[in-house]
Every structure is written in C-alpha cells, then in structure tokens.
Amino acid sequence: MKVAINGFGTIGKRVADAISKQPDMEVIGVSKTRPNYEALIAIKKKYKLYVPRDKIRAFEDHGIEVSGAIEELISRADIVIDATPAGVGARNKDLYIKLGKPAIFQGGERSEVADISFNAMSNYEKALGKRYVRVVSCNTTGLLRIISVLEETFGVRSVFATIIRRGADPKEIKKGPINAITLDPPHIPSHHAIDVQRVLPHIPILTVALAVPTTLMHVHVVRIELSKEATVKDIIEVIEKAPRILLIEAEKHSIKSTAELIEWARDLGRSRYDIPELVIWRDTISITNGRKLTLVQGIHQESIVIPENVDAIRAILKIVTKARDSMRITDENLGLKRWW
Amino acid sequence: MKVAINGFGTIGKRVADAISKQPDMEVIGVSKTRPNYEALIAIKKKYKLYVPRDKIRAFEDHGIEVSGAIEELISRADIVIDATPAGVGARNKDLYIKLGKPAIFQGGERSEVADISFNAMSNYEKALGKRYVRVVSCNTTGLLRIISVLEETFGVRSVFATIIRRGADPKEIKKGPINAITLDPPHIPSHHAIDVQRVLPHIPILTVALAVPTTLMHVHVVRIELSKEATVKDIIEVIEKAPRILLIEAEKHSIKSTAELIEWARDLGRSRYDIPELVIWRDTISITNGRKLTLVQGIHQESIVIPENVDAIRAILKIVTKARDSMRITDENLGLKRWW
C-alpha cells in the first residue's frame, strides 16, 4: 500500500520511519512547507520530498531536491497520513476528498474531522473500512491503553487522572512555561476526558491537566475504580502480558524520573530515544479498598501515537481485520516490547 | 513572650519577621551557623545574631557583629522556634531539654521529635500547653487547611491528592530536577498522607507526589469525597469565609499559573512576594456525583507555614486558648486575607 505523509515534523517523520519498517506498506513521499533541517533529513533518508507548488523554487534555491507538488504526492497514494500542525489537517481534508483519498488525522484536529477517533487497543475493529480516522493525541492514547487493558480483565467503573504535561517538545524553542506550573486548561475536566469518551463512550472519566517546565515526557497519576476486586499482583500480571505497556522498576533499576527513563532509551539505542510504549512505574501500582487502583505512568509525547498511525492504515484499508494481528505486525517490525 | 529563632534560613527569617509584627511576642535573637548574606540581612534588620561558640571569630572576621553563642540565646528565651535544616532540629532538642525551654520544630523533622504535629485550623486546642510541637510541612499544611474547612461544614469521607512539588526553592542552586518529572517518592502513598493523619487520624487519605522543574510553588490536584452533598456554590461560600484560603480567578483575572500568581503577590508589594494563604483556583472547583469535589490549589512553600509557627507559640504558652482568636491576631498583623 502506498502511503503519503503530509507533514514531516515531530509525528510525520516518525510515522514515515515506522511505515518504512512494515512489510505491507511503503512511503511514497513526504511533504514539507519550509526548507528547514527536517527537509534535509527527509532527503538524507531518501524520502521523496513534495512541497507547495509555489515553494518549489524556494526549496531548490536552498539546494533541496523536490519531487513535485503536494497534490501530486496525494494523487499517487492509496492513503494519506496527515501530520500537519493542529488545525491544518482539517483544511487539508478538502484536497483528500477532491482526490478521493482516505486519510488519517492526528489528535490535534477536532474530532469532527474524521468518522472515528481511534486507538488500536480500544476500537480497531470499528475503524475497519472507515474513510477518515483520527488517531487521538498522546495523553489520550496513554489513558486508553491502560483503561482498555484493565477493562478486559477487571472491568472499569470510573477513571480520575491528573495529567502533568511537558511544557514543550525538545525541539520547540518558543513554548513555556519555563518556571511555573500552569493550569492547562484552567478548568475541569480537560479535553482528555472527553476524548477518551469519544473512543470509549461508556467510561466515566474526569481529567485535570497542568503543564510544567520539562520537555521529555508527560506523566499521569491515574486512579481507576475497577468493577472486580484485584490485587497488585493481578494487575501486574495483566500489564506484563499487555501490548505496548512497559513496566519499569523505579527503586530496583533506579528509574525514578522521566530523565532516567529517557537515558535508558538512549542507552538501548532506540531511534531518537523514542518510547512508543506506555510506561508504568511498577512500584506505584497500589490497590485500596480492594477495587481502587492508583498508578503513575509516563507518556513519550513524540512517539506514543506512532504505532497507532500504522495500525490505522491497516484498519482503513482492511489489510488486517483483527486489532491484535495488526498490532503484532507493527510492534514486531518496530522492535517494541515483545508481548505476542 | 521572648522568642529565640534557631536557624535564620528560608523559614526562620520569615518567622522572625512575622513575630516582630505580633503584639504579644518579640524576637530576642536569631542564629546562623554560616556568615553568609542571610547573616548580613539579620544584622541589617536589627536582629541580634547568635552563632556557634567556635564560630564567633569567623563571623567577626567577616565583619558581622555577633551578640553571643547560641546557648546564650536559648537560655534567655521563653520559647524556641527551631528552623534549622531537616534533621538538625532533633539534634538540637537535647539543648532545649537541658535549658528547660519549650520548642517548635518544622515539618522536616520526624514526628517523634515533638509531642504533637500541628496545624492551627485542625488541632490548635490539642497543642495547648504542650512542650514540643512540630508544625507540619508546607504541603501537609495546605492539605490540612482545605480538609479542615470542608470537614466542618460537609464532612470528609476520603481524600486523594496528587502533589506536584517545586523542585527547589528560588535560592537553592544545587537541587533539581532541571528537565524531568521525578517520582518523589517512587511509591504510593507519599509521606504527606501519613502526616495529614498525624493531625487528623480519622481521615482516609492517599497522596502521590512528584517533583518538577520549577521554584515558585507546589500545586495539588485534590479530590475529596464529602459526607454531605454540596454544590460548587456551597463550596465557594465556605471557602470565601475560611481563614488563610484565597480563591483566585484563573480566567477572569488571568491567573492560570503559579508564575502569574507570584507576579500578583509581587505587584501587591508583599514582602518577599510571600503568599502564606492556601490558594485555590475557583474555576477548578468541580462536583461530580453530588459529593465528589475536585479542585486545584497552590502552596507557596516558603511561607505557608509561617502563620502556623506564630499560632504554635500561643498554643504552647497558652497565651490564647481558641484557634480562631490566635489566627485572627496572627493574620491581622501579617496583613493576610481578611476573614474575621
């Protein structure tokens, strides 16, 4: 299957690399609107680069080889991954409609842009054959993974999560805060609760979000009331077998922070030190009153949605009809946690 | 009443200034162990400075006037505020016993150092006439204030709080994290829950704490299950009348972060931009299921325990027997929120 990546920034460049490793799809080209260092990386990695028609000259003046206009890229594709900045995806949709191409949008877009908001573990089958799919944002993806895994075994009665957001990504030099804790948003609930319910409408959930001065990862303090009683050991057993969730030892391996977690990923030789798995600190898993689970989890905001974008392609094009089958192919080829 | 301030650092210098403004007590001297800028500030503010006997020469070599050895300061006092670094207070206790002086310790000490752990709104009357009192730490003080106020009107069935700690105080140059979210501690519950229960043993409470790269304030996401149903309006009415709790408008006044809150305190001309009141963002006050309250609150870690230290003096020496009477005198003279 021929995939066009529209937007080669934080998400787009990672999705391109992930698709390149899959056996059943190929990247036929990527797009950029500015001739910056990421455009150079695209060329260096042998992706064909497409740009707005009126900017072809500007790119070539920068010495960057252009394969054509973005419309040409889209028209040659079986499917488009739209990884343009939040809000731009919705404006691009007209083009995808005009050229008759299915498309995957990111969580920064309003949910109305797509037929369905998507998480592989939560509602893969519902996305089969859909034309426009929106992969929910990083924080929502993290919440959906743990909720879906626990729901399957224990049932979930309600969820309360405090989301401590990283203020900016490592490459972002104009965002803050630099010395503050910001109520982001300054009301309750944050949009994450609403977004979880777009995928799992039956889950009562409340979320509170704050931004802090760090670039590495988001951290969630999650409290889940289970339907059935469970022990800490029960929870750990289920998470150990679950796709895309890593259990990390804070005390035993001395990984008590997002900084040590990222250092571990760097030492492992992971590309861009990405951690597409949801990370749960095993030491924090606590049960009170038999059914109230509390835990702390980390979300690598730049990469957690990458496997979901790959799976969304298979769902839309019905290449694979079962969630687990698609996830296994994705994860095996990305070298993620072995769970199959 | 003659008060000795043992330790003139973050807490000690503020307690000294606060006591100086009260009508029923006076600072007879403060102590320092190093001849740094804070020792110079003590002299500039006309506090008599006492130092370890073997360091008198070193201070004088720095051109800092010394009034005597620390033992002399303690022996002349009616009561001692121990504001030395965590753990040092317990070692000082022998001296206070030897010289027959009651003392107030800070929350960094283990609870065993004192006869009682103290918060003015929660258990003032239980501290009357006690010899050794420990004022609980900043985060615990913030939790106790909101719990005590709500308990009085609505009853409190359980508390769950996520504590987002500032990594270091503004003056601390060797502490972190500088780009991480740290599980601090990497297990559940954090000591704050245990410390709340030292003061209010009947409250079921769980706390999770993380440290982030900021210096200004701690922030708590607090979830309280009330015994009685309440509306957001009910909650606001009770908090508006409560001592030492400020309600802040995030949207209306554009104070959506700790940075804007501190800027507001600076603009108000508050000494050292201190905010000894607990700050609650009104916009975040939410009720679900009739009895589950969620809110976000800010704690100025350098100053929130200052009024409590003043009240603890009155409780130990039985100058005032009712909590509200002591708090009114303290707050009126410190220029805090008018609630009386």
Write a brief structural summary.
The structure is a homodimer of 340-residue chains. Chain A is of the alpha/beta class.
Verbal overview:
The structure is a homodimer of 340-residue chains. With 340 residues, chain A is of the alpha/beta class. Chain A folds into two domains: 2-136 and 305-334, NAD(P)-binding Rossmann-like Domain (Rossmann fold, 3-Layer(aba) Sandwich); 138-299, Dihydrodipicolinate Reductase, domain 2. The first copy, chain A, has twelve helices and 16 strands. Chain A has helices at 10-20, 37-44, 56-61, 70-76, 88-98, 120-123, 138-154, 191-199, 232-241, 258-267, 306-316, 323-334, and strands at 2-6, 26-31, 49-51, 68-69, 79-82, 103-105, 116-118, 132-135, 156-166, 182-183, 205-212, 218-226, 245-248, 278-281, 286-288, 292-299. The first copy, chain A, has an eight-stranded parallel beta sheet with strand order 4-3-2-1-5-6-8-7, with helices on both faces. In chain A, helix 1 (10-20) crosses helix 11 (306-316), helix 7 crosses helix 8 and helix 11 packs across helix 12. Chain A is globular and about 65 Å long. The interface between A and B is large, with 42 and 42 residues.
| Low-pLDDT regions of chain A | none
Instruction: Let me know the largest β-sheet of chain A.
Output: 8 strands, parallel
Number of strands of chain A: 16
Q: Give the helix level of chain A as a range of percent.
A: 25-40%
The domain tally of chain A reads 2
CATH topology annotation of the largest domain in chain A: Rossmann fold
- The radius of gyration of chain A is 20 Å
What's the helix count of chain A?
Answer: 12
- Secondary-structure-based class of chain A equals alpha/beta
* Spatial separation of the terminal alpha carbons of chain A: 25 Å
Indicate the CATH architecture of the largest domain in chain A: 3-Layer(aba) Sandwich
SSE order of chain A: EHEHEHEHEHEEHEHEEHEEHEHEEEHH
Question: Could you tell me the mean pLDDT of chain A?
Answer: 97
Biggest interface reads: A-B, 42 and 42 residues
What is the strand content of chain A? 15-25%
